[in-house]
Write a structure and sequence with these properties.
heterodimer, A: alpha+beta, Zincin-like, 10 helices, 4 strands, 7% strand, B: mainly alpha, de novo design (two linked rop proteins), rod-shaped
Chain lengths: 322, 192
């Protein structure tokens, strides 16, 4: 959050500095860039966007997926879903979250909200269709784990910010193209005087432009880094609530095998889901690059960790599987 | 030297405040978790008359099973109205365990008659019952987890010094009273 605002302040004030350097030597009467209005404006915008993203994030995410709130369960599957959510809320010691169903045939689930008192859990119809009661319970346990760890606040805000940055860059890009023509016209008069500040301006300009280009990338990487760590923790929380890690393992296997991408869930909110909704092969590969770029840890790793938990539990209970 | 002592006293004092407040918070959480069990038990008691009414017409032949459920339920409701304390807790858990086993017998009976299960009403009630049983056991699980945390905290070394000040008492855990339920079920897979 703060990083986001500081980053935009740098973009704004950096731009001011460059403008100031390039207009410093202008003869009197021509425009001199003395007051850092770009920086101030961008900082204010960044703060406003961050605040807006924080406040409306959950609604935005739910709206973007086309989710429908389950108030009066329509059929047996929804009734069971509502019951399971209530059960897991009791196990987690949390108030019951609001419940949503996404009309999509691909199995997936996500949680959003600000804090445990204002949280939302959404699953797709596909998940309700393929999961057994125990598996559904494990998936909901995972999502409530995110709620209890307050991951939802961070990740929902990040989702909204990623969207906002993409939008802002688009707008600024248009403005910069316009500004470039203007700067070119003004530069002609300066070239004849002295070029002392020239290289410094050039370097700053390059760094500044690169910052602009990578802004969306940085926000997205941030979201991904947060998400991957939290997935393992939420898996473990699910196991703690249900005392049945094998159910989550088999639910993850089922979600994994139904490899079709979840059409209703867009890139911006991918890191909110229990499994990568884009069905990217990256999510299943291990290694440095995949580690940096995937929104979820490799599925195989998550399943094997859960199975490890499950077998340890069975062993403790006296080898009931033997 | 005087100020070193002063700092030490302030640090110890701050730690004591923190430990004391931590214990009180856990104590109240434990209490709350216990009350959550009550809420779920109440829900279960309210559900049972519905269930019995739904299967009564279709199950004239299993009168004794139904009667056992009703009796266990009335017993449990009566116990719940008495006061708190570990003694009451033991009584509650005894009555509820009796109810649980009566209910599971009933569900086994329902399973045995497919045409009974086919009635949509029974299917829904079965789901409700499964959910209610799960809610009771998850509420107990939460209570046991919270109480264990509380017990560990008040017995572990530095915090144990403040435990007396916070009037911390070890909280009782829910257990299976019925010895038959604790026994590992024996499955005989040898082919005859």
């Amino acid at each position: 959050m703060i990083g986001f605002v500081v980053f935009f302040a740098w973009l704004g004030f950096g731009g001011d500095y460059i403008l100031w350097l390039s207009t410093r030597d202008a003869e009197p009467g021509r425009y001199r860039h003395a007051f850092p209005w770009v920086g101030l404006a961008l900082s204010v915008i960044a703060i406003a966007v961050a605040r807006y993203a924080y406040r409306t994030g959950p609604q935005k995410v739910l709206w973007a997926t086309g989710a429908r709130e389950v108030i009066d369960p329509q059929d047996d599957a929804e009734r069971q879903f509502v019951n399971v959510v209530e059960e897991m809320a009791i196990a987690a010691g949390l108030p019951r979250p609001r419940i949503w169903v996404v009309p999509d045939a691909d199995p997936n689930a996500f949680a959003t909200g600000h804090d445990p008192n204002d949280s939302h859990i959404a699953v797709t119809r596909g998940l309700l269709a393929i999961c057994s009661r125990d598996e559904l319970q494990a998936v909901i346990g995972h999502e409530l784990g995110h709620v209890k760890n307050l991951d939802v606040r961070l990740m929902t805000t990040l989702a909204a910010l990623v969207g906002a940055v993409l939008l802002m860059r688009e707008g600024m890009g248009r403005m910069m193209r316009g500004g470039g023509r203007l700067g070119g016209g003004g530069g002609g008069g300066r070239g004849g005087k002295k070029g002392g500040a020239g290289p410094l301006i050039a370097i700053l300009l390059v760094v500044w432009i690169i910052s602009w280009l990578i802004a969306p990338l940085v926000t997205q990487l941030l979201a991904l880094a947060v998400s991957r760590k939290r997935e393992y923790l939420a898996d473990a929380m699910s196991a703690q609530f249900t005392r049945n890690p094998l159910a989550l393992a088999s639910a993850l296997e089922k979600i994994e095998n139904a490899a079709a991408p979840t059409a209703a869930i867009k890139r911006g909110s991918a890191h909110l889901c229990i499994a990568d909704p884009l069905g990217r092969r990256l999510a299943n590969r291990e290694g440095w690059l995949a580690d940096r770029l995937a929104s979820h840890p490799p599925m195989g790793m998550r399943i094997s960790r859960l199975k490890g938990m499950g077998y340890a539990q069975l062993k403790k209970e006296g080898g009931a599987t033997a | 030297m005087g100020w070193v002592l002063l700092i030490l006293i302030v640090v110890v004092g701050l730690w004591m405040v923190g430990a004391y407040n931590g214990l009180i918070a856990l104590k109240n959480q434990t209490f709350n978790a216990f009350k959550q069990i009550d809420v779920q038990l109440k829900r279960r008691h309210d559900l049972i008359p519905n269930l019995v009414n739904a299967v009564k017409g279709a199950m004239d032949f299993e009168k004794s099973t139904l009667e056992a459920v009703i009796q266990a339920r009335n017993q449990a409701v009566k116990v719940n109205t008495s006061g708190g304390g570990p003694e009451a807790m033991k009584q509650i858990s005894q009555a509820e365990n009796a109810l649980s086993s009566a209910l599971s017998r009933l569900m086994v009976v329902v399973e045995r008659y497919p045409d009974l299960k086919a009635t949509g009403n029974i299917g829904q009630l079965q789901e409700e019952l499964t959910s209610t049983e799960n809610k009771v056991s998850f509420a107990r699980q939460l209570y046991n987890d919270t109480a264990t945390q509380y017990n560990t905290k008040q017995q572990q070394f530095p915090t144990s010094l403040v435990a007396g000040l916070a009037k911390a008492q070890p909280a009782e855990l829910w257990e299976i009273e019925d010895q038959a339920e604790r026994a590992v079920p024996k499955v005989d897979l040898t082919s005859r």
